[in-house]
Amino acid sequence: MKVIVTGGEGFIGKALVAALKEGRAEVCSIDRRSGIEVADFFRDADLSDIDCVFHLAAQTSVFNTDKNAVVADNISAFMVVCDACRRHNVRLVYASSSTANSCNTTSLYGISKRFDELYAACYHPGATGVRLHNVYGPDPRQGTLLWHILNDKPVKLVNAGRNVRHFTYISDAVRGLIYAYGKGGRLLNVANPEETSVYDFAQEVDKYKPLEIVIDRQKRNFDRKEQRVDTCIPSVPLQYVSVREGVRKCFEDETQK
């Protein structure tokens, strides 16, 4: 296979590229960090020999207040990628988000991901959207919950740590994206079925790295106490890594570096 991965230098992108190469795919990674803008590349790219585009490049935080950046990267660039794949009859697998579920949407980020799903359904019906749920793993991306837990001193848990999430280990996210290649024209969830509070997640980390935890009862803007999985959309049938096992693997992998 010949595939393109956008956002290939990102947290999930690097793991996906590694897995695809291990499976003997020929991978071209497109990433702003490498000086390549996704929209610029796909406006003129010849995709005639490409089997699939895995589109992961995006602004990735519900707390991002730079609306222009969210629109440019999550909506405008997505339209260019989607249109190019349709024009060349190339399979498209793109990363959506749990926040695309209307009951979870609190900001332009979630709105942009829902827009992508609707746009793909209209303009590239063979595309597959993968709603990823709270992905974590070793060497987490700056600004994510696990990154803050590992780096903040003290660790402040807003809403008293009661927010409930479906924390999904990085290997499951990668397997879900690859699985989606053969499931054209639909939406899929990749979500660990466990419901875990942020407090309990932090307690798992505390077993390996003692934390100074401060309970903050303030609720943040753009936050939801509970992130729900849309049960109207099928979930990728994986034996999902439990939070207990996933956190253990994070520290195990770190010690092996």
Please, could you describe this protein's structure?
This protein has helices spanning 11-22, 38-44, 67-87, 108-123, 145-151, 170-180, 198-206, 243-255; strands at residues 2-6, 26-30, 52-55, 91-97, 128-132, 135-136, 155-157, 164-165, 168-169, 186-190, 196-197, 213-215. The strands form 4 sheets. The protein has a 6-stranded parallel beta sheet with strand order 2-1-3-4-5-10, with helices on both faces. Strands 6-9 form a two-stranded parallel sheet. Helix content is 37%, strand content 18%. The protein is globular and about 55 Å long. The chain has a single domain, classed as Rossmann fold, CATH 3.40.50.720. The chain is of the alpha/beta class and 257 residues long. The chain has 8 helices and 12 strands. It starts with a strand and ends with a helix. The model has no long low-confidence stretch (mean pLDDT 95).
Named at the architecture level, the CATH assignment is: 3-Layer(aba) Sandwich
Given helix and strand content, the structural type is alpha/beta
Strand tally: 12
Mean pLDDT: 95
Strand order in space, largest sheet? 2-1-3-4-5-10
Distance between the termini: 30 Å
Strand % is 15-25%
CATH topology: Rossmann fold
List low-pLDDT spans.
none
Coarse morphology: globular
Number of domains: 1
Q: What series of H and E elements makes up the topology?
A: EHEHEHEHEEHEEEHEEHEH
CATH level-4 homologous superfamily: NAD(P)-binding Rossmann-like Domain
Q: What is Rg?
A: 18 Å
